[in-house]
Write a structure and sequence with these properties.
Number of strands: 0
Number of helices: 8
Distance between the termini: 71 Å
Oligomer: single chain
Order of helices and strands: HHHHHHHH
Largest sheet: none
Length: 182
């Protein structure tokens, strides 16, 4: 039995991905988006200037590298742009009081807001994780805490960047403060 001519392979059209959109977006738009991930203009400019990224892993690696290269002043600026994680709406008032007191002690000792990555924490455990984190980190000396806070900022930035590329908004943490200038 003879067969007829074979048809050429069917190719699906290339649909743009969130990374494609990120790579092609205007510099000012990308800069504003990146400031929502880490509130450091130097960090966001560095990531925006090195586009295009071939894949998400390359972007995340560049984000980490840029965060490790932040100067103390850049780190202070990024920390100043952060806010406390928001608690679930059904959190009882005593928990708010405990968190407010713990944060006041933390900020008095270290001079900046407490930052913690909550992306892998179940919502029902976020309050305990935040309180435990503040209390345990209050025992750190200022230099040790600055290193830990910088690492938490890197984790926050990576989580926020992934959420941004997934189109899910800021799902990495419960931080809701707008970027500077917004």
């Amino acid at each position: 039995m003879t067969r007829g001519p074979t048809l050429p392979a069917h190719r699906l059209p290339h649909l743009p991905t969130p990374l494609d959109a990120f790579n092609a977006a205007p510099d000012d738009e990308v800069g504003a988006l990146l400031l929502h991930c880490l509130r450091s203009p130097r960090w966001s400019r560095r990531l925006a200037d090195h586009r295009p990224y071939p894949d998400v892993e390359s972007l995340l690696a560049a984000a980490d590298e840029a965060a490790y290269d932040l100067s103390p002043a850049d780190l202070s600026e990024a920390l100043a742009g952060e806010s406390l994680p928001e608690l679930p709406e059904d959190t009882y008032s005593a928990a708010h009081t405990a968190l407010t007191a713990a944060h006041a002690a933390y900020e008095a000792k270290f001079g900046h807001v407490f930052v913690i990555y909550l992306g892998d924490t179940p919502p029902g455990e976020s309050l305990d994780r935040v309180l435990e984190g503040i209390r345990s980190r209050l025992t750190n000396d200022p230099e040790e805490e600055r290193v830990i806070a910088a690492e938490e900022l890197r984790r926050l930035a990576s989580g926020r960047l992934l959420a941004l590329l997934r189109g899910a908004g800021n799902g990495a943490t419960s931080h809701k403060q707008p970027a500077p200038g917004k």
